[in-house]
Amino acid sequence: MFKIAIFRALQLGDLLCSIPAIDALKLNYPDAKLYFIGLPHMRALMERFDCIDEYIDFPGHPALPEIPHDPRELARFILRMQAENFDLLVQMQGDGTIVNGFLTQFGARRLVGFKLLAPVGDSDWLTYPNHLHEVDRHLALVRFLGIEEASRAMYYPIYPADWAAYEHIRSEIERPFVIVHVGSRDARRRWPVENFAYLSEYIYRMGYQLILTGVEAEQQLVNELQKLMEFPAVNLCSRLDLGTLGCLLTEASLLLCNCTGISHIAAALQTKSIVISMDGEPQRWGPRNTTLHTTFDLTKSIELGRIENEISHLLPSISF
């Protein structure tokens, strides 16, 4: 059996942006077994996608900051990768400066992917297209390898079991609602909680229920937001898994969030969103459908009134 492995040891949003390219690989190699090598805590996400046949936990590397690493675990991991005898190993971990040499240790028959600057005429390495959106960057690699695209669209699978688990959440929702997500793994990407509180009041006075979301590590941040609110909100922080979060987003009227993983799930589900970008790269990470989503680059001076106007544009006013 032909064996393909993809290396992308990154976080939720990074992975969702690579799914169209991974789908293309599966489309063009339908009889191959496709392995995905990623961070252990991203297993639950990637196992939702049927283009992935087997998920392999990456134990970390001293030059990659995402998770701590144990040198003994890394040595065992490399031996396992060598034993797999991959026919094709695809590097989707940035420009390759850090990982390309490391991936040669896997001993795959062919290693392809990105380089900071690839030699002219090289059939295995593409110069990293830094100017493209993250989705299009990986589709460019697919085209470079002569592989037919399946679709440019992101998507997010939701299963019947997810909807069944969501029923107890739905019982707490009384009217059309907006999700407010103040967290982000990277603190530099977090807009001040006070600004979220200000816009939440604006949304509440338009007639919408406010739903607060976040992971367990963001509980204090979400609680801080709720304390600033002088109106009711449903706090679902740490109460949702990937499936029930998808259901919630499917039924939401709008998502207000930082540029982080949840914004990519909303984009995949075509849920309207206002995304606050604090990293100066909205052209790389902001949702591509600007009819449904508006990304504000907060490295530039933008008044809250402009965001209020965009909320009014995306949300019909309702009474309650």
Report on this model:
Strand 11, helix 11 and strand 12 form a beta-alpha-beta unit. 37% of the residues lie in helices and 17% in strands. 38% of the residues are buried. The protein has 2 domains: 142 residues, Glycogen Phosphorylase B (Rossmann fold, 3-Layer(aba) Sandwich), CATH 3.40.50; 155 residues, 3-Layer(aba) Sandwich (Rossmann fold), CATH 3.40.50. It is α/β, with parallel strands linked by helices and 320 residues long. The strands form 2 sheets. Strands 3-2-1-4-5-6 form a 6-stranded parallel beta sheet, covered by helices on one side. A 6-stranded parallel beta sheet has the order 9-8-7-10-11-12, sandwiched between helices. Helix 1 packs across helix 10 and helix 6 crosses helix 9.
Describe how the helices and strands are arranged.
Blueprint: E1 3-7, H1 12-28, E2 33-38, H2 43-46, E3 54-57, H3 71-84, E4 88-91, H4 100-103, E5 111-115, E6 125-127, H5 134-144, H6 160-170, E7 177-181, H7 193-205, E8 209-213, H8 219-228, E9 234-235, H9 242-251, E10 254-258, H10 261-269, E11 273-277, H11 282-285, E12 293-297, H12 304-314
Parallel strand pairs: 1-2, 1-4, 2-3, 4-5, 5-6, 7-8, 7-10, 8-9, 10-11, 11-12
Helix pairs in contact: 1-5, 1-10, 6-9, 7-8, 7-12
